[in-house]
């Protein structure tokens, strides 16, 4: 059960490509939500500030749909012409769309609940309410026992790659081009959203956040300014680049060729950023359905807690999407789920929040390691790494409880001398976890150097965090006059960055302490052995 809640999965994204030189980009690791139950006060840092985002009149989702209206999209995007650079994140303003709602308004959520009930959602023991953690969430209406199954969302209310398109022509074009699940679902959401009342998902889409929170929605300068010390910045840039690349490919090969079906006002970078933001923060992978990725209305109103393990799955006996509580709840308590065993950086990357201090047992910090260019065996080492899908620099996660075998193997490779070139392969294989087994490499003659190398990496990282945390407020440019809305956003992002960086630096401090102690013990051990040896020498003299 816990295994299934580790919700990273590999997406094989590729549209059959007439030009094999041009590859389609898409993140190889994408997060998916899984579900579980609650903490008493899992206050996450996001709850300190409420960002004030542009507001537009919400469409009334209760309007009746007319079938003849199908495929007549409404141009509702308010995105401004993009000033973005090649990776699309140079812009100072993140485009917003009109779809969805401000999640602090509960009106759309009550339309959603009514619509779900009318369409087969059975009576629930929870209701959508404004909550302290996560803004909107599901709250127990009655006593809920530990081990109870909840939700029972019927498959007819779930969106997946096989869902029927309200505008079948658009769906047919994508299917003919064998567009994989993630970009297909992103396009599906945009297509349905643009149809408004003519889409059967209107009530669901109207209750989605207009601005999903995740690093996908930070500008390049925000990432550079606030996440300068954290490796999560790189991952955010990679993700933004992948999403942008995916949109550009779809646009080039499909949208631009059929503008009647895919008008630019609807299918553009801003609307894709919105739909990918929704997918990153709400998509669920269902283990009992061969890992099918789905959007599960209602279930996706549950917020995350790192201290519970229960997750969403399809339940054959009830034929619905359920989760089983792993604690009891009293009326009025918010019910939480687990989005998987994620570090705070990963939570910020996909969901836009950081867990409250000390509540995330899965927290880790990525440390970047690299082979020194002046290493006489630089080429051989890099070749060995590349053979196993690694590079230089390479990131490894460090946890409060220690570091993985892969990181140690990489460190051995970095410090190993030319006369050990026969072992480079083995080291790289273990570093990539693609070796024969998860092997604990042991090279006693290199251990001290390898540990010293890891310590140096941690200390250089610590100094970056300290510089950022000491300078926050003073090194951030306050000279530009900003509106209240921008000030709120700035405060929110600063707070998130400070929370993330303090948690990550704490893990590094712990690693520094352990490494220093281990090295000291090794060195005093060596010293003692040397003193004994010298004593013997003197004796024999
Ligand atoms: C699947 S949705 C959950 C429902 C969401 N609160 C809503 O109103 O639509 C995931 C989003 O909820 C918020 N969220 C979930 N768990 C949270 C937590 N522990 N602290 C703060 N925000 C949280 C984040 O904005 C995240 O992107």
UniProtKB/TrEMBL annotation:
Q: Which organism is it from?
A: Amborella trichopoda
Query: Chloroplast: is it a keyword of this entry?
Result: no
| Name this polypeptide is given | SET domain-containing protein
Q: Which Gene Ontology terms describe the biological processes this protein takes part in?
A: methylation
GO MF annotation terms? [ribulose-bisphosphate carboxylase]-lysine N-methyltransferase activity; protein-lysine N-methyltransferase activity
**Which part of the chain is the SET domain?**
124-340
Q: Where does substrate bind?
A: 282, 300, 314, 339, 351
**Classification via SUPFAM superfamilies:** RuBisCo LSMT C-terminal, substrate-binding domain (SSF81822), SET domain (SSF82199)
Keyword Isomerase found: no
> Which InterPro entries does the entry link to?
Rubisco_LSMT_MeTrfase_plant, Rubisco_LSMT_subst-bd, Rubisco_LSMT_subst-bd_sf, SET_dom, SET_dom_sf, SET_RBCMT, SETD3_SETD6_MTase
Q: Name one GO cellular component term.
A: chloroplast
The record's PANTHER family line, in alphabetical order, gives:
RIBULOSE-1,5-BISPHOSPHATE CARBOXYLASE_OXYGENASE SMALL SUBUNIT N-METHYLTRANSFERASE I-RELATED (PTHR13271:SF123), UNCHARACTERIZED PUTATIVE METHYLTRANSFERASE (PTHR13271)
Amino acids binding S-adenosyl-L-methionine: 282, 303-304
- Which Pfam families does this chain map to? Rubis-subs-bind, SET
Q: Which UniProt keywords apply?
A: Methyltransferase, S-adenosyl-L-methionine, Transferase
């Amino acid at each position: 059960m816990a295994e299934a809640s580790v919700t990273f999965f590999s997406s094989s994204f590729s549209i059959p490509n007439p030009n094999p030189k041009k590859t389609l980009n898409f993140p190889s690791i994408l997060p998916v939500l899984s579900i579980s139950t609650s903490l008493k006060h899992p206050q996450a840092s996001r709850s300190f500030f409420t960002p004030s985002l542009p507001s537009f009149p919400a469409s009334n989702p209760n309007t009746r749909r007319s079938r003849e209206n199908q495929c007549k999209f409404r141009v509702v995007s308010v995105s401004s012409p993009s000033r973005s650079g090649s990776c699309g994140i140079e812009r100072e303003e993140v485009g917003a769309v009109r779809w969805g709602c401000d999640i602090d308004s509960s009106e759309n959520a009550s339309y959603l609940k009514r619509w779900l009930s009318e369409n087969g959602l059975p009576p629930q023991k929870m209701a959508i309410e404004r909550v302290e953690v996560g803004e909107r969430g599901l709250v127990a209406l009655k006593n809920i026992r530990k081990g109870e199954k909840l939700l029972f969302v019927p498959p007819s209310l779930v969106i997946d790659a096989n869902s029927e398109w309200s505008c079948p022509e658009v769906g047919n074009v994508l299917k003919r081009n064998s567009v994989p699940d993630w970009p297909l679902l992103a396009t599906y959401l945009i297509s349905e959203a643009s149809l408004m009342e003519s889409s059967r998902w209107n009530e669901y889409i109207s209750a989605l956040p207009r601005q999903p929170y995740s690093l996908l929605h930070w500008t390049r300068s925000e990432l550079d300014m606030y996440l300068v010390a954290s490796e999560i910045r790189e991952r955010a840039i990679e993700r933004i680049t992948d999403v942008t690349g995916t949109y550009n490919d779809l646009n080039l090969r499909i949208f631009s060729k059929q503008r009647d079906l895919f008008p630019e006002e609807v299918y553009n970078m801003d609307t894709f950023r919105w739909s990918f933001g929704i997918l990153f923060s709400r998509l669920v992978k269902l283990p009992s359905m061969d890992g099918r990725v789905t959007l599960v209305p209602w279930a996706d109103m549950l917020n995350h807690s790192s201290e519970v393990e229960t997750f969403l799955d399809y339940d054959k006996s009830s034929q619905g999407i359920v989760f089983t509580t792993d604690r009891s709840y009293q009326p009025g308590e918010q019910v939480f789920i687990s989005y998987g065993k994620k570090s705070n950086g990963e939570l910020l990357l996909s969901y836009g929040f950081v867990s409250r201090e000390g509540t995330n047992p899965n927290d880790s910090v990525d440390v970047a390691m690299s082979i020194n260019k002046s290493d006489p065996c630089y080429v051989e080492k890099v070749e060995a790494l590349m053979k196993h899908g690694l590079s230089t620099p390479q990131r490894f996660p460090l946890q409060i409880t220690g570091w993985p075998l892969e990181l140690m193997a990489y460190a051995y490779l970095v410090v190993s001398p030319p006369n050990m070139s026969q072992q480079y392969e083995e080291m790289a294989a273990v570093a990539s976890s693609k070796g024969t087994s998860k092997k604990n490499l042991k090279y006693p003659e290199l251990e001290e150097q390898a540990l010293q190398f890891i310590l140096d990496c941690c200390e250089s990282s610590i100094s970056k965090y300290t510089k950022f945390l000491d300078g926050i407020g003073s090194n951030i440019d306050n000279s530009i006059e900003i509106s209240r809305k921008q000030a709120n956003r700035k405060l929110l992002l600063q707070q998130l960055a400070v929370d993330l960086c303090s948690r990550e630096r704490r893990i590094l401090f712990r690693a520094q302490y352990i490494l220093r102690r281990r090295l000291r013990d090794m060195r005093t051990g060596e010293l003692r052995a040397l003193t004994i040896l010298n004593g013997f020498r003197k004796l024999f003299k």
